[in-house]
Hints:
Helix content: under 10%
Structural class: mainly beta
Largest sheet: 5 strands, antiparallel
Number of domains: 1
Low-confidence stretches: 1-46
Shape: globular
Mean pLDDT: 85
Strand order of the largest sheet: 2-1-14-13-12
Amino acid sequence: MPLDEDKYPAETGRRRFVKGVVGSAALASVGTGGAAAVNTTTSQSGGGGGPTQYVAIENTAGPAPRGMPIVPVEVTSDGEIRGVFPEAETEEVGGVERVVAETDMGGITYSSQWFQYCGIEQYEGAQPEADADNLLRAASGENYAWQEDLEAGEPLTVDMFEDYESWGNGIGKGGLGKPAAARWRSETEGAKTIPVQVLRTPELPKMINGEQGFRDYSTIPQNIRSFLGAATEENFMAWLNKCTHFCCVPGYKKLEGSADFGGENGVYCQCHQSVYDPFSPTRVQFIARPRPTE
């Protein structure tokens, strides 16, 4: 992995956290060292951080060092789509109390540290104890044509995606799913926006079952397929939409020029031509940056 694999780091399980922050020996296991080592050890006032494993949509081209983390989703009884954020707990590590937020998700430890990179670790909504409703809401700014009638901040609902099996906008292959630009845990006054991409796709059951679809999903490891089964609902998936290269906000099927870089059926970042494949979930490791604490 490149040395700058995490200028902007994210997650760990509790045992992995305790072992991971010990020193540069742990860094060797993730292929990082040198300048990155300064991010590995968290101070007593730091909020988490260190070597972290997470499930991502794979980076397949361009300079981005790794994929973007998947955000587990669930559908409420009212048909609203929510991002799942693990509940916060306080534990003692080395005589110091720390707030952690993690849960088992299909056999994989899902943690708030997945999102501790690109400065997101400083956002109010990324703090484990933040008062947030977790609803995935329509983003502001330039979005998909179908979102033009939505007000910024309006909760996304299942009925908005009824045509997901046939949706297309002339970019790449149609029928792979319907996307939405969203924001998450960002509604507190003055809070910075956490950008999320939502996708309802008919490919999800095939991915979970390891079947042939747009890709040969039999190559997806069983533990990741189990995670997908637990982290998706009604064929909805989502990911934190911050490019791991220089923290730009890319887009799924947003730019026609993405075809020039093999990104017409994926998530393309026009800043430096990084491409991510939402149909190729993978497990990667990086160095999560500590959250600020009072």
